[in-house]
Amino acid sequence: MKKLNEAKEKIKQNAYLFLIEKAIDSQTGRRILINQFSKRIQKVVIEEGSKTKLKAVQQRKSQWIKALLKQFLKNYEKGYISRHAAKKGLEVLGLNNFFSSSLSEIKKAKESFRNKYQIDPPAFLVISPTQKCNLRCKGCYAASSSETKATLPFDIFDKILKENHDIFGSRFITISGGEPLMYKSQGKDLLDIFEKYNDTLFIFYTNGTLMTEDLAEKLAKTGNAFPQISVEGFEKETDERRGKGIFQKILRSMEYLKKAGVPYAVSVTATRKNVNTLLDDEFFDFWFEKQGANHMWLFQLMPIGRGKEVFDLMPTPEERIKLYRKWEQLLEKGYPVADFWNSGVLSNGCIAYGRSGGYFYVDWNGYITPCVFIPYYVDNVYDLYKEGKTVAEALFSDFFKKGREWQNKYGFARPQKAKNWLMPCSIRDNYRYFREAILPDDAKGEDSFAEEARNSKEYFEGLDKYDKKLKKLTQPIWDKEYLSEKNKKSKVED
User: Fold this and answer.
1) Number of C-beta neighbours around residue 212 at 10 A
2) Which positions ≥6 away from 142 have C-beta within 8 Å?
3) What is residue 107's predicted lDDT score, i.e. its pLDDT?
4) Which residues, including other chains, have CB under 8 Å from residue 87's CB and lie 6 or more apart?
5) CB atoms within 10 A of CB 117
6) Which CATH superfamily is domain 1-494 in?
7) Which of the four pLDDT bands, split at 50, 70 and 90, describes residue 62?
8) Within its chain, how far is the Cα of 47 from the centroid?
9) Smallest Cα–Cα separation from 177: which of 209, 212, 143?
10) Where are the domains of the chain?
């Protein structure tokens, strides 16, 4: 029976690859392909992959996935995405995520991890191979600039990715920074990574100023790495935070990418200075309709790194509610926007601490933290490797285990009893609990800013006050619009 099921799944995989090959060149075929892809996602991600039975949560997930596929198809038909990039992206995403249970290599890795550690492995890894950056943006969470030199040696970078690939069975990587395109070590750069792990899908966050026509062509050739370009709004907001002339450089880079057929996304940091721009349809119409972005990430400013210096730039609790309502409207409009931290329902809450379906973070110093935005660590890769261990061992420090315990209590283990996924972040939205019950005494700050924040009474009281006010505003929404009986169901609906 097992061999028969494997044979059936193999036939489905081959049929999927055949469908991509034949359908991608015709409009009708593409629409059939996207429709089938959407149904498969609906089944795997929503029905099988999600434990939640909250109707409103499932609706949000379905809206986001459909919007993402719709925008991808629209950009392909505009000529912004090459045939090779579209085919490669759909192959990697489809085979490695929606047929992964039957791909022997992935299945074996996940089963081995589960048998050894008694939990499921994380779905992906975020890694910042260098802190170097050619810009110095106000409030940068990574405190990066041209003066910050910390960089992972290529052999260490490669080893971490290999463990993600072989131990976790993951085929997805997010690369952050610093500016990833400045990474160079031992005669290698990011393109060497993309080419080596050609069965893996990469997204990398970039300020967009170092893109060239030649680099765009090389990215198109690999077909498995997609830039996520940072902006702050329009030209005024972007140049004010990032430097004069940056906005025009970004637009030029996007033209290079569209010409080469490389899909890209936009990443925005929400602050009190640009929040009104982010509440205006014109902003989203510009990036999705005129510039051809495939999706958008919206990160509300975190007061870490140099962000501590601009604590008062965090969107207020009232502004955060406005951004949440705007996100709902954007999904209705068909724009694939994910708002950290207003879109917690898309991921069943916090995805940090290496949880099942989640991730953890490795920075330029080799420090292993639960999340890009939690600047504290217990383990680092250099010590683990000296002891003959792997990055997987870091997931079982008290720090990570306490974080996962909190996630489960907060609703990940029992979604129908979720406390409030409109406040999903442990450090941003539940700071008092994070400090008192999750952050251990032996955890060290990723940088001096993190240690200053940890020792600051003013910082503690400021975030705690913020969280209490935010809870008063979001809890009624969560209770009424997500937990009420009419928004619960016994089974997943389309």
Assistant:
1) 12
2) 128, 131, 133, 176, 177, 178, 305
3) 85
4) 20, 21, 24, 223
5) 13
6) Aldolase class I (3.20.20.70)
7) confident
8) 21
9) 143
10) 1-494
